[in-house]
Amino acid sequence: VTLLNFYGVVLYDVYVRPTEPVTDFRTWVSGIVHSDLYSKKAVPFAKAQRTVEEILRGRILVGHALKNDLRVLRLSHPHRDIRDTSTVKLLRLGRRQNPKLQVLAREELGLEIQKGPHDSVEDARAALLIYKKHAKAWERSLAGLSNEPVES
User: Fold this and answer.
1) Is residue 4 within 8 Å of residue 125, measured between CB atoms?
2) Contacts for 94-97 with beta carbons within 8 Å, 24 or more apart?
3) Who wins on pLDDT, 15 or 148?
4) Does residue 77 sit in helix, strand or coil?
5) pLDDT of res. 40
6) Membrane-spanning regions, if any (predicted)?
7) Cα separation of 90 and 77, whole Å?
8) Comparing 95 with 122, which gets the higher pLDDT?
């Protein structure tokens, strides 16, 4: 779990001990190995969940494919406070499917990301930079959104 502030400074960056056994770490994609999740350094799920919830309370959540992250953490967040680069119409540009973060980073920022093992800080910063690039238009397009939460 990685959370940044508006300036891209890391607020929280931890490995979370899973509540169920992991059968495939997909290390080639995730960069995660057994010891990352099952060492003393890994944070218990409930503690990570509480911390994330506390940090996010009353704040705008910017990221990519946030529905997945919220589902895994079993959290909800008010829809009006979510800025998801994977679903915003402003970045769809005629695409049928939601764009991958790697593609958006290249097209919107000229950045090549995700070239090695997964780096959650790199991903979070890319999503934040994409949001900041389009923030004015994005916020104008959100006028009148409801306060309903996006549930896990």
Assistant:
1) yes
2) none
3) 15
4) strand
5) 93
6) none
7) 21
8) 122
Q: Are 104 and 132 spatial neighbours (Cβ–Cβ below 8 Å)?
A: no
Domain 2-150, CATH:
3.30.420.10
Model pTM score? 0.88
CA distances, 57 to each of 4, 16, 29, 41, 148 (Å):
14, 20, 31, 25, 14
Calculate the dihedral angle through the C-alpha atoms of 125, 126, 129, 131, rounding to the nearest 10 degrees: -110
In whole angstroms, what is the distance from residue 1 CA to residue 12 CA?
A: 7
- Tokens 């799920």 identify what position? 45
CA of 86: how far to CAs of 14, 28, 29, 90, in Å? 23, 23, 19, 10
